[in-house]
């Protein structure tokens, strides 16, 4: 793991939180699909996925429909342990 081992989704930039939410709502997606859903640039999505992978929230797998692409999925156990970004943002 690179970076701070205590970093959580809450500590990430807004773009990474958006990518997290897109994956949470849509399930497994390729980078292109995340770009389309989030309306972020491909470079921003790559950076966000890298940040999410660094804190073990996102898993990268082979996309069998097109082996040139990867399929990104939320690690549900890590999300539950982390609490996700909703805990801090929704408290009133």
Automatic annotation (TrEMBL):
It holds the Pfam family HTH_24. It comes from the Archaea. This is ArsR family transcriptional regulator.
